What we know:
The structure is a homodimer. Chain A is an alpha/beta fold. Chain A is 49% helix and 11% strand. In chain A, a hairpin with a 3-residue loop joins strand 2 (102-105) and strand 3. The first copy, chain A, is globular. The relative contact order of chain A is 0.14. The interface between A and B is medium-sized, with 34 and 34 residues.
Amino acid sequence: MTKPIARASATRPLGDSEPVSAFVRACRRMTTDRTPVWLMRQAGRYMTEYRNLRAKHSMLDLVRTAELAAEITLQPVAAFDVDAAIIFSDLLPPLVGMGLKLEYVSGDGPVIHNPIERPEDVARLTVTSPHETMGGTLRAIELVAAELQSKKVPVIGFAGAPFTLASYAIEGRGSRNYAKVKSFMRCEPGAWSGLMNRLVDMLVDYLRAQAESGASALQVFDSWAGQALGAQDYERFVAPYNQRLFSALGTIDVPVINFSTGTAAYIDRVAECGGDVVGVDWRMPIDTLWERIGHARAIQGNLDPVALLASWPVLAREIDDVLARCAGRPGHIFNVGHGVLPGTPVGNVRRLVDYVHERTSEITKDQKKDDRCA
Amino acid sequence: MTKPIARASATRPLGDSEPVSAFVRACRRMTTDRTPVWLMRQAGRYMTEYRNLRAKHSMLDLVRTAELAAEITLQPVAAFDVDAAIIFSDLLPPLVGMGLKLEYVSGDGPVIHNPIERPEDVARLTVTSPHETMGGTLRAIELVAAELQSKKVPVIGFAGAPFTLASYAIEGRGSRNYAKVKSFMRCEPGAWSGLMNRLVDMLVDYLRAQAESGASALQVFDSWAGQALGAQDYERFVAPYNQRLFSALGTIDVPVINFSTGTAAYIDRVAECGGDVVGVDWRMPIDTLWERIGHARAIQGNLDPVALLASWPVLAREIDDVLARCAGRPGHIFNVGHGVLPGTPVGNVRRLVDYVHERTSEITKDQKKDDRCA
Lengths: 374, 374
């Protein structure tokens, strides 16, 4: 990205008036000319442009330097006809504002050097303004929103859900069994509640600030809930806090996406916690999930990202299957069921985006014809 | 274990006559005086006796030396009042007989040095007798069966399910996204079918040999299916082979346990593939799962192994919950929903086993009283 990025105006681009982008319209279950499509991790290691930048900067530098984060965010928008950008950031940096020492260790992934081990550790968590901790991300959203205003491509803000952040804060690093966090919540229910409530408060402030900076939608990633928790643990240790979070986010005038993975067995309960859109992974067919969530909610998903590694005919069949199961019903946002994998051919991403647009333009046209006949 | 282990007689201990052990009776959904209990990985790193042996021998040595494998198998039977032993072995050694070069690399877990990468690699897989490849395990079963005959404690044989083995054969090591195996099955359906069928053939031979060596039940571990696969992939790439496997195992006169994890969302389909008992993880309440599986099948599970890390009152509540949900219905085998974790207090395991026995003796007594009144 060589040209300078203009600063966004302070006014919010959407909300008071009828939403203009297909993506935001679909979040509100309004009709669209074609199914909107974007891909989780659409900016990432599979793109040369990203790898080139990543080679020169640490992960935290990329997240914290507004111009770099904006540049990465815009890479897939320049390369593909996606219907939304998602701000380049990561789930864990907001924890730094709570006093947790975060480092991205090459090869090992993120590490928290002072994880929460005892109830007292919850009491020592600090509160800081999102503008202080996540100022780079907020400014990056302003830059991207300004840049994309003329194209009418909205930018999505995001954050990790309370459980996913609490897991990291307690485990200190990636985990296979989540034994520490699951023991903590069982054995220290008071401290667990304190931790989750502090995370909810932080997240509401941070996500509100993202909307105020120009995000047209907000996605909450509960990436670890379903990996770690059964339905009963989710009900007791997660649902009350997610409900409070989504309820508070409901007062912000942009749509909210409630995304999780591994929760297909209890997706109805996950959906009940809130959000305008429920983001689903690839573990069950999307029509089954949508039925269990209820058609009064929009849905986002659910192509298996592994399908993007296959040849085009194989990939096209799986795209067709998702589209057929949604049958042009308003409120479907096409996406992968989890992030795009490193090694994904760029050509497959481009073709996917165009194909979803073409195929669903036809479906919409057919439906309009049907409407006319009826 | 200092005393020598006698060799098993060639005759099968169970099958022709009425099963005598509570565990096998429960597999057959026959009444028992109390709910039988054993724990996946009941022999393992949480026990000092195991760690002492492991410190002196490599993993493959432990698996292949019948006397050592038998000794490890018997450790939890000596320490706790469990209703079954499970032969100490691992899922991957049978792959060695197919020509795959397996090594347990300290810190990294198992590695296959010549993984399957192309369709041609499937054609080069070899066929060997289980007595040649897994002779140590088969002899260990004989030793354990002989040792436990007087105690009437049955020994369970086991193997990995075709998908779980195929994943390892293709990925070559542990995986997060299973991208290689999922790409292979999508892009090379013919070779995939060939691989899965060869695995089924090998597994039928190996599991039959285990029963002939004295195993009173057989468990098939599909530990990775639900982590890796959604319902549609399972239907297309796994179910046909599992059905063939369980159908062939049905001709062996010992009960078969069909265990998987992460499959709660489509457990009905998993159960349809076969097995006398369906082994379930901890992701959904056991009564919900049993209802979806159907009460015409026995069920094994589903305590979260993390609960065993908690204090006794917390653990007891979770045991009570599982027992209450099963309500003494014949055909419940109490177990964890996945293997016992390293670091689990031995005292909790002992207390769990005794508690399940005590509590369910009471339930059975109450039911008998009720029956008398009715």
